[in-house]
């Protein structure tokens, strides 16, 4: 059963963290926002290439949610085949420090994890 976020944020300390995570949480939203932050404007298929493990349906769903929350803007060009571009809105740009902080923390976490795990020793294969 999904967790229902608070309908208003006049609640205990930390509730605003929940509000933020509701907007950018999940497996793909943060990555989509990061890509739009670094690339400025991306078309749907460019995002698909940058995120090879996401399904078309999930990417469409995540983009619609981000657009509905006012974090990204979608521009459709009237041509055949349709051309659609995505970019961060001014409101979405305010997440830049948050996204950069998440990336910095993630980089440090990966470095820490990599240093803690000894590299696997390669055992030569014996040919039959």
TrEMBL record:
InterPro entries: HTH_HxlR, WH-like_DNA-bd_sf, WH_DNA-bd_sf. The keyword DNA-binding applies. Residues 15-114 form the HTH hxlR-type domain. The keyword Heme does not apply. It comes from the Bacteria. One of its GO terms (molecular function) is DNA binding. Keywords: DNA-binding, Transcription, Transcription regulation. This is Transcriptional regulator, HxlR family. It comes from Lampropedia hyalina DSM 16112.
């Amino acid at each position: 059963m999904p967790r229902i976020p608070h309908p208003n944020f006049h609640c205990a300390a930390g509730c605003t963290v929940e509000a933020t995570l509701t907007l950018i949480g999940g497996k793909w939203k943060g990555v989509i926002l990061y890509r739009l932050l670094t690339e400025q404007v991306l078309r749907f298929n460019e995002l698909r290439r940058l995120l090879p493990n996401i399904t078309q349906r999930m990417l469409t769903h995540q983009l619609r949610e981000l657009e509905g929350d006012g974090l990204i803007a979608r521009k459709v060009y009237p041509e055949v085949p349709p051309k659609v571009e995505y970019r961060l809105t001014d409101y979405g740009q305010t997440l830049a420090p948050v996204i950069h902080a998440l990336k910095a923390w993630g980089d440090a976490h990966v470095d820490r994890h990599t240093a803690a795990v000894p590299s696997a020793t390669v055992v030569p294969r014996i040919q039959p």
